[in-house]
Design a protein that fits this description.
The chain is of the alpha+beta class. It has four helices and three strands. A hairpin with a 2-residue loop joins strand 2 and strand 3.
Amino acid sequence: MIIKASAALRNDYTSISNMAKQTKEPIYITKNGEGDMVLMSIEAYERREQILQLRAKVLQAEQERVDEEKTLTVSQAREKLRERVNDI
């Protein structure tokens, strides 16, 4: 976990920006010794968003399974994928 004071962000933005890009980790910014915000590179943010979207889809699929909605066997899913590829 990287923690920096807000003064560091104000006084040395380039260094903090480079650090966020190189580490691909969020940087926690404090103000008066208290947590204030989190800074991350666009790449790290987009990767995090993709993970969250994937998790949401997995949770939705699991909920559908629990609710006993119609599902496909592996063979049926493969066949549907083949059909889609052939349609392209």
